[in-house]
Structure to design on (445 residues):
């Protein structure tokens, strides 16, 4: 039986990863997903509940070399307001702006949105097109060990990631976008607030003299995880963003996704919206 | 037996020590353990905002917060705004504009409006509307609520 027996609120990263060693730990940060999930019985709290909010190393948004580091505990409100993010990563600000409600943005953390691994997670699509990586910490021996993983390989299924039970996500690192970098995000839902995406789309790349390169396309709510769309990326890579390219890429996008029917939309509608909104975003980028 | 934990925090300006179930949310602690029933239980999943409180100066849904996470923090509920001149202005404006009908959303609405006014996030009616997106009212249709908040924040249009 792994019934809840301990509550811990460590104040250092070393203590936290030490606690994670036995693997029977539920991690609490903002609580905006864990509270309703545990109260509705969808998630069972393990032997230990560990509140990581008192660990200073997990907070903050900083420029480290050519990367922006966003601590796992940064709230959506903090990310939206931060000058570094506003200056370099406006596409992430845009997605945060469509995230739930003010009260939830004030509590929800970036690490929580990532580890909750919803196929419709609002921050995940911009993070994917920005080539973000997640840093994980653990203590296999007596020493703290950190390693990084591209976010594009992190998600396994709804609510499932490659984080092992004895690891903690400490931060997200995002390379500073190069000159000429463009990135767009669109969330399609039925109302502007507190909505789970019907679909969401992120597109990024470097635009020079009408040619798009280093293309990144990601879709939310069309697969068991947020996904990169490699065929759509190929259809755009190195191409001039003219009407023919845009139409072709939108058609490839529609054929590439394999969504399901659910309460929010039919698979057919999702595919049509992927087509229409991919086309709309690319047309806006071409005209900008 | 459910696991208990002792916490200490500031509630409406007064230090409190409380023993709570580790899995209990802050809303249940406020209402059922401490007995402050001004904070309302609406949906229990962060959709309606009736349970809005302020923690360390920002508004949160107390139903989405573990009670144990209040430990060491500064918590304000609607009761804590009872003798606060800025909040008095909001309350008077709600009365004057007829922004209260059944009254169930009102504590949460005032807590969120107070947060918006104090953080200077309601310079125009669009930002007020955006700011109260997480608060549902099923009676007045929001116009009177937005007008009441605008009259306090000095928002135009």
């Amino acid at each position: 039986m792994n019934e809840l027996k301990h509550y811990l609120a460590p104040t250092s990263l070393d203590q936290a990863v030490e606690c994670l060693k036995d693997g029977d730990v539920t991690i609490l940060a903002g609580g905006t997903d864990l509270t309703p999930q545990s109260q509705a019985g969808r998630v069972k709290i393990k032997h230990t509940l560990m509140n990581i909010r008192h660990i200073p190393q997990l907070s903050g948004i900083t420029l480290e070399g050519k990367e922006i580091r966003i601590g796992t505990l940064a709230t959506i409100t903090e990310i939206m307001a931060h000058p570094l993010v506003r200056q370099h990563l406006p596409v992430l600000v845009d997605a945060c702006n469509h995230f739930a409600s003010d009260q939830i943005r004030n509590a929800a953390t970036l690490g929580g949105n990532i580890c909750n691994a919803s196929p419709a997670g609002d921050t995940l699509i911009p993070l994917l097109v920005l080539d973000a990586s997640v840093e994980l910490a653990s203590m296999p021996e007596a020493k703290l060990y950190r390693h990084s993983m591209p976010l594009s390989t992190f998600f396994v299924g709804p609510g499932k990631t490659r984080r092992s039970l004895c690891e903690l996500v400490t931060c997200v690192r995002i390379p500073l976008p190069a000159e000429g970098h463009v990135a767009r995000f669109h969330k399609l839902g039925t109302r502007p607030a507190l909505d789970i995406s019907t679909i969401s789309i992120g597109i990024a790349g470097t635009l020079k003299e009408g040619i798009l390169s280093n293309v990144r396309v990601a879709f939310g709510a069309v697969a068991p995880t947020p996904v990169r769309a490699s065929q759509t990326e190929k259809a755009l890579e190195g191409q001039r963003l003219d009407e023919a390219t845009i139409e072709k890429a939108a058609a490839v996008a529609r054929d590439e996704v394999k969504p399901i029917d659910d309460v929010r939309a039919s698979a057919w509608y999702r595919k049509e919206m992927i087509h229409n909104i991919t086309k709309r975003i690319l047309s806006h980028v071409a005209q900008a | 037996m459910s696991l208990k934990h002792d916490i200490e925090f500031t509630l409406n300006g007064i230090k409190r020590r409380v023993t709570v179930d580790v899995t209990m949310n802050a809303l249940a602690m406020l209402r059922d353990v401490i007995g402050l029933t001004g904070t309302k239980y609406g949906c229990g999943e962060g959709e309606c905002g009736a349970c809005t409180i302020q923690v360390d100066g920002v508004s949160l849904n107390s139903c989405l917060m573990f009670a144990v996470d209040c430990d060491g923090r500064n918590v304000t509920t609607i009761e804590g705004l009872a003798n606060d001149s800025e909040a008095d202005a909001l309350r008077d404006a709600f009365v004057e504009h007829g922004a209260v009908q059944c009254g169930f959303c009102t504590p949460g609405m005032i807590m969120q409006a107070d947060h918006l006014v104090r953080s200077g996030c309601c310079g125009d009616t669009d930002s007020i509307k955006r700011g109260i997106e997480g608060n549902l009212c099923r009676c007045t249709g929001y116009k009177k609520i937005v007008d009441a908040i605008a009259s306090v924040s000095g928002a135009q249009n």
About this structure: Chain B touches chain A through 33 residues (CB under 8 Å). Residues 22 and 30 of chain B are 14 Å apart (CA to CA).
